[in-house]
Design a protein that fits this description.
- By secondary structure, this protein is an alpha+beta fold.
- The strands form 2 sheets. Strands 1-2 form a two-stranded parallel sheet. Strands 3-4 form a two-stranded antiparallel ribbon.
- The mean pLDDT is about 85.
- The chain has a domain of about 55 residues.
- It has 4 helices and 4 strands, in the order H-E-H-E-H-E-E-H.
- Helices cover about 45% and strands about 20% of the residues.
- Helix 2 links the parallel strand 1 and strand 2.
Length: about 100
């Protein structure tokens, strides 16, 4: 079927599959791990783990569970300023403060 008949989720899955079909030094992933059913998310996790052995991944997401699952370092963009953190916990604390969520 023509791609323009696909749902947004199906288009994202197709783009993710096409992206992983090519070996890159660095992958830029924007919340694709949050789409699809549980089976697709497991496939994403497995594919990420495989790619992370030989490539870097820049992952953009608001999902703290995903950040903890895949990231060793993090950056927070707030008020037009990007701040880098060597540990994920500090970055998540900074992010929560920047959006006014204090736990």
């Amino acid at each position: 079927m023509p791609v323009n008949t696909y749902s947004a989720g199906m288009r994202a899955r197709l783009a993710f599959g096409a992206c992983l079909a090519i070996d890159f030094d660095t992958y830029l992933i924007d919340e694709v791990t949050e789409i699809g059913d549980e089976r697709f998310r497991r496939k994403c996790a497995l594919a990420f783990r495989e790619r992370m052995r030989c490539s870097d991944i820049i992952l953009v997401t608001h999902n703290t569970r995903t950040i903890r699952q895949y990231c060793e370092r993090a950056a927070v963009l707030a008020n037009g300023e990007l701040r880098l953190y060597d540990d994920v916990a500090s970055a998540l604390d900074a992010y929560r403060r920047s959006v006014g969520v204090i736990e």
